[in-house]
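Subject: Sanity check before I submit

Could someone independently write out the structure tokens for this chain? I want to compare against mine line by line before I put it in a report. The sequence has 227 residues.
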Amino acid sequence: MTANLSLNLVVLDCDGTLADSQGEIISVMNAAFKDHKLAKPDPQAVRKSVGLELEEAISSLLPGGNETLWNKVSETYRTHSYARRDAGKRGEPLFDGAKLAIEAMSSRGWQLGIATMKSMRGLTHLLGEHNIGRHFSTLQTGDGNPGKPNPEMLFRALAETGTDAMSAVMVGDTSYDMQMAVNAGFRAVGVAWGYHEVQELRDAGAIAIADDFETLPAVLEQLFGVT
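---
Independent answer below. Compare away.
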């Protein structure tokens, strides 16, 4: 099957879309809160905050705090996260079917990218661990980019791949991903296996929902009229 040129770039979110990172994120968040003698945050609230800039996520979990506290907890979170990664203790498995879907989309001639609030250090570690980095033409991270739903990461992905927004799609699991896609003029596709509910994704601008990775390429083909 040959991909129509109307689809040239597929940008994926990472945490909650490509990799199931919630266990790792909750563990590190708990450790950071404990260091500051704070009660453990609600796990569901942590899930909902995935995809935001770290400081914004922390502030959403500590609404009664202040900027000084949010920044301190954020720095402690990063310290724990880096230490666990360097010790080989991070657990971020890919979702079922992710690797095969990435290979299938790449084989169709579509350029692939990632837009995530992860650090570049964390993202390249994950891609290397799962041996999938070679499939991606552009990697946009929280390093030097404004947080979602600001569209800057997607604008940079377009520039790096020589693509226009009408030929691109953003695939993600949170309302922040969908809002970012809309803000950038991308088509927005939500996934049913992530950290926000399907209705939240639709309300935020998703025009299609993929039920699993196995069917994601077909959802994109249908959306773009691939023949």
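---
OP: Matches mine. For the report I'm noting this point. The chain has a mean pLDDT of 93.
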